[in-house]
């Protein structure tokens, strides 16, 4: 294992040599793949004669410069330093690699017999010696030689040749005319089913769309194909951006570290984000597929045509592309629901990251292992930072900024500063105050006070950001604040404020208190905010705020106030009758937007509530949530039943209307299953009678959450019936791992023994242990520390196989300082034990940060 060395953003140096073209030839064999790389290099830095090439786990066979064996180089564990180089030369390197032994799933590896690559962020160095940095952009030509039993040999760009070789093997050649960094290189070789479609761009070019999936699954790629067509249209309509090659390919693989990868012209996807039909995928799966397909497609412009200068700039492409996929999802369905989803991610995972040892700005300053910085901060807070620019500039201004960004930087590797500069210049405005969002980590806390003055009402805002692990000094940020003011009968004013100092007052003339404010409508800035709303004011807002997000937020606030009071007093606070009235009303006559009604009837989750406490009172939050849900179940039992029965399902189709109906009906089901009077026939009928996985799984989820006596038996039945399908096997694992009773430990043991379980497959491991660590607070935080021990031992095992996987699983243990001393000590102990073992650089970076001050 190599030693970690921190890299600093400010140490950036342009490359000494640039590469105009590279020609790769792969001779594929499972444990001995030969790679030949022929690159054309030219000096870029005056006087430079040496060049660093990254390389890891490579066997060097030969190295020539301008056709001559080159001996003036130094080989190190992580690469080669070439010396005495001329101004311009051809570099020819032969290496041998072992895809069959590659369980890290970085570089070239095998997934169920198919070869595939994953090069972002720094995986290309496991394929050949190369300047593995995004600011070296070259035109790639790729030749693949393989046995005839691998009929599909794919790489970036356009297919330019296919030959049968004398020895029976096949040689194909691909050429990608767009210069690109090596992290966008991809190669796939395997036997697949192919699903083909097409798209005609707005300028009339015909693009072939091709999906490659495991044999027999062709029809399950249909929804993904249609999603791609919708995404292509959206990018043309909203941003004027057209696709630029004649072919767009998507390959689904079962072994994959993340969701998907935007390799130029050849996306590689985790199969769970491609394959869907009514029998195997839920409404949530459909939603995720559509949004991830769009995300990777949108990268073609924001990421590929314009890429990152260095990895500190990752949010340049990821924050922007997440923002774009969120806009797309909002346009395809309910904008409010999409926004609520995004807000939940920020309030749970992102706020937790800010409050823990891995806190970093969306543009980090120091990185040890780049794989550790594909975070909710870089991605999701990054998207919020883009969204705020969109809010400040307006849709038209934002579009002008995007146009200028592409006009200036197409074909370049650039920085976050370049992006903001384009936004600024296109709008003739000054965003310098705003730019602190890129460099400051932590969650700002915003508070507000309203008072009467002689002439009207004064709104005083304060902001403050607590120090984070990485950064002690904090400064005020520019917050775009969408507000509404109500007088109790309706909205009297709304608008957008810009708040950029520690404290500032805004005057509203011709008003008198009482005024009920909505602050941060649409969650217009990613901050925590507080205002002393009265219960009846929140009840009012939950029904009358103009902004849907604000209505939902008012409900969330009511519940979190109740939980807070219960925690403070050590006894359950009574649900105010006004809240019960509003809920009863909603159950009896839901809003036309059924999915939104379901959200309003659902309490905030444990993680959202937890982020509001400096020291997280685990049992108290869980107990309060449990009691409140039980109360709603009992009090409204008849109404829930009535609602459930009124919402009759139609034959399955994935549509906004049907998704909403299922969401609300299954919300009712969840409450119904908490009451013993509910006959088993009700859920049994839904389980056996429904024609889709959404409704079947909802039954199991409801049984598990209600700790229903039949939960385990039904899980077993589900496994026997559906466990042969890997997607459904993972759903079974996830349900099992979220059981909130101590039996979960024995069940996890058993699940690891099942034939379909595989420590080498990240989806299998995550379905059990990302869920256990992140979605089962009761058992993960069990007071004796058994949950911590379990997760730590799994991480130790996973790290040897796949460091990226292990490093992601450790997240819930890192924030031990947020818990009461006894619990924190147990978590810390689990981490320290883990540290006894020789760990990957990935885990080493995180554990060092968590355990040492
Ligand atoms: N760039 C990819 C995306 O956001 C994600 C990604 C980064 C990735 N590193 C990865 C995927 C490693 C798989 C493995 O779409
Ligand atoms: Zn991305």
From TrEMBL:
Ranges for domain Peptidase M1 membrane alanine aminopeptidase come to 223-437
Q: Where is the Peptidase M1 alanyl aminopeptidase C-terminal domain?
A: 536-852
The entry's keywords: Aminopeptidase, Hydrolase, Metal-binding, Metalloprotease, Protease, Zinc
Which enzyme class, named as a word?
hydrolase
Q: Enumerate the spans annotated as Peptidase M1 alanyl aminopeptidase Ig-like fold domain.
A: 442-531
The record's CDD domains line, in alphabetical order, gives: M1_APN
* GO molecular function annotations of the record: alanyl aminopeptidase activity
What SUPFAM superfamilies would the database entry show?
Leukotriene A4 hydrolase N-terminal domain, Metalloproteases ('zincins'), catalytic domain
- Which transformation does this protein catalyse, written as a reaction? Release of an N-terminal amino acid, Xaa-|-Yaa- from a peptide, amide or arylamide. Xaa is preferably Ala, but may be most amino acids including Pro (slow action). When a terminal hydrophobic residue is followed by a prolyl residue, the two may be released as an intact Xaa-Pro dipeptide
- Cross-referenced Pfam families, in alphabetical order? DUF3458, DUF3458_C, Peptidase_M1, Peptidase_M1_N
Name the EC number(s): 3.4.11.2
Instruction: Give start and end of each Aminopeptidase N-like N-terminal domain.
Output: 46-184
Q: Which PANTHER family match?
A: PUROMYCIN-SENSITIVE AMINOPEPTIDASE
Q: Which family does it belong to?
A: Belongs to the peptidase M1 family.
What protein name applies here?
Answer: Aminopeptidase N
